[in-house]
Design goal:
GO terms for molecular function: DNA binding. By secondary structure, the chain is of the alpha/beta class. The protein folds into two domains: 139 residues, Rossmann fold (3-Layer(aba) Sandwich), CATH 3.40.50.2300; 78 residues, Arc Repressor Mutant, subunit A (Orthogonal Bundle), CATH 1.10.10. The protein is 46% helix and 13% strand. It has a six-stranded mixed beta sheet with strand order 1-3-2-4-5-6, sandwiched between helices. Helix 2 runs parallel beside helix 3, helix 6 runs parallel beside helix 10 and helix 8 packs across helix 9. The longest helix has 15 residues. The protein starts with a strand and ends in a 10-residue tail after the last helix.
């Protein structure tokens, strides 16, 4: 039986594999942890350094092991994945959290993204997508399928009432008109290439606008920027999102 909290050395001398992405797996179901670990341990350039059965253990182990990425189940006993993510974001900003959930449409996923998670995966993710997501998050990018992100946020993030016109929220006042356009398109689920095509500008210019609006909104990634767009009322949820 796999222990609820465990660490694993990288080789016989206890060193990490040189250059490998160090991953901590946090899930209260031993079989899920085992399956994720088996997939990741067969992937080149990824090292599973530990496993935790609840959020408190994940925070503890992350402090000891300093992983690059934590695969964090959202719903766990003792401390849930949202609170664990919030603590890791505050205490270890270099550690990237990739949230896991059994359900595609899970309001706790949005809470985890607000707390600092860099992406979300369903637990039935394929081995190929899992390893690709871990590598992407380790490189500093966010991992949420744009259409899924839009559905999640449009469903679970509240926006101000649309009954009366309101002035631009203070969170958006520092954005240029072009940055507001880019943010609207981000919230619509478009990637950088699609935004460039829509606005007739280069992808590199889109990336500059995205970096600028991240800094002005004080968000870490695309997911948090899209949440800000909905919460500010810049983008409003539709009655049906597909």
């Amino acid at each position: 039986m796999i222990p609820e909290e465990s660490a694993r050395a990288g080789d016989e001398e206890g060193r990490s594999v040189r250059g490998a992405v160090r991953v901590l797996i946090a899930d209260d179901q031993p079989m899920v942890r085992m399956g994720l670990a088996l997939i990741l341990r067969t992937a080149a350039g990824i090292e599973v350094v530990g496993e935790a059965g609840d959020g408190a253990a994940a925070v503890r182990l992350a402090g000891d092991l300093r992983p690059d990425v934590v695969l964090m189940d959202i719903r766990m006993p003792v401390m849930d994945g949202v609170e664990a993510t919030r603590r890791l974001a505050a205490e270890q900003p270099g550690c990237r959290v990739l949230a896991l959930s059994t359900f595609d449409m899970d309001e706790y996923v949005v809470d985890a993204l607000r707390a600092g998670a860099c992406g979300f995966l369903p637990k039935d993710v394929t081995a190929e997508h899992l390893t690709a997501a871990v590598r992407t998050v380790a490189e500093g990018e966010a991992v949420v399928a744009p259409r899924l992100l839009t559905r999640l946020i449009a469903t679970f993030v509240g926006a101000p009432p649309a009954a009366t016109p309101q002035p631009a929220p203070s969170v958006l006042q520092d954005l240029t008109p072009r940055e507001v356009e880019v943010l609207r398109l981000l919230a619509g689920g478009l990637d950088n290439t699609e935004i460039a095509q829509t606005l007739l500008i280069s992808v590199s210019t889109v990336k500059k606008h995205v970096a600028n609006l991240f800094a002005k909104l004080e968000v870490r990634d695309r997911a948090q920027a899209v949440i800000a767009a909905y919460e500010s009322g810049l983008v409003r949820a539709r009655t049906a999102v597909v």
